[in-house]
Amino acid sequence: MGGPPGGRKGLTSGPLPWQDSIEEVVAMRWIVCAGFALSLAVVGTGQLVINEVAWGGTDASPYDEWIELYNPTDEPVDLTGWVLAWEGVSIPLGEESGGTIVLRNHVVPPHGYFLLERSSDDTVVGREADLIYRGALSNRGEVLQLLDPEGEVVSTANLGCSSGWWAGTKGASMERISPDAPDGRFSWRTGLTGEFLDAEGAPIRGTPGAANACYLSSPRVELTLPEGKLSGSVSWSWRAQDPDTPVEELTVGLYVSYDGGVTLQPVAEGLPASGSYDWDTSGWEPGPVLLLVRAQDPDGFWGIAIAEAELSGQ
Predict the structure, then answer these.
(1) CA 76 to chain centre
(2) Beta carbons of 91 and 131 less than 8 angstroms apart
(3) Residue-wise burial string across 163-187, b where 16 or more C-beta atoms lie within 10 A, e elsewhere
(4) What percent of the chain has pLDDT over 70?
(5) pTM for this structure?
(6) What are phi and psi of 247, to 5 degrees?
(7) CATH assignment of 7-35+217-311, given 2.60.40.10, 3.40.50.300, 3.60.21.10, 3.40.50.720?
(8) In what order do the strands lie in the sheet with 7-10?
């Protein structure tokens, strides 16, 4: 589905998990999460992603940490030569060396998951770990990096978080809302109770080795912007809806990010659920940006639509 002639449209209107590509410049992604929804117009890496991080362990033990990778492609990925790393820790994903204690599998199937458990395989009952590793995640925060065999960073988790973690708590995971979501504060949420049990038989607040739990009904946001480089006066058009809240009670803000969504600069706030806004781009730094519309309801739930763009600075 495409936008109107001469426009690019970010539309949160389809079933999960994704929609087809729109135009030649963006790939649309419709993600619905408990508490917030996201329509992404960003191009994913097409490679493995760090999908979920249980940095606070489980209710059974804060030491029962686990990490999940996801393969969003249609092809299996051989992890030979791949490394997952953070400060002081390096985990080879294709061999038993360094931080890798036990390796049971080194191939991630198409649209499949790869589960890493810390120290032992007792962390998740009913789901065998693909890899057991040594190395702790600090509650004060870490930046995880996933490196391919060429040493290129293809995915990160918690990048740009100045203190602690973007989401998660003691006993609850930090889960990415979509494999294509950029690593920033809007791209992570705290895990909900899933189908697996911890070492003491209590439900794990997260989804180790399974689809993330954030695909629930929540506000929807549409965003339409002109195509090509943006200059001069640019018109934002948006429309937000909520399944259980009158549109009159929704409030909208418009934002710009130069760092992939880690930090946001407000363009306008306190706007109605639908409308348009003429934005003077002449005072903004030129370069690639993410443009974001955020709608929030009175309960604190929110939805966003994001589009890639480039500012000309003119």
Answers:
(1) 21
(2) yes
(3) eebbbbeebbbbbbbbbbbbbbebb
(4) 82
(5) 0.70
(6) -60, -25
(7) 2.60.40.10
(8) 7-10, 220-226, 233-241, 274-280
Contacts (Cβ under 8 Å, ≥6 apart) of 255? 264, 265, 266, 267, 291, 292, 293, 294
HSE-CB of 143 using CA atoms within 13 angstroms = 13
Sign of CA dihedral 201, 202, 208, 212: positive
CA distances from residue 49 to 3, 72, 282 in whole angstroms, order as listed? 29, 8, 36
Tokens 């120290």 belong to: 119
Q: Over the stretch 38-77, which tens digit does the pLDDT of each residue have?
A: 444 333 345 899 999 999 999 999 999 999 999 999 999 9
What values do phi and psi take at 186, rounded to 5? Answer: -85, -5
Q: In the block, which residue shows the tokens 């960073």?
A: 153
Report d(CA 234, CA 125) in Å as an integer. 53
User: 306 forms bridges with which residues in the sheet?
Assistant: 40, 292
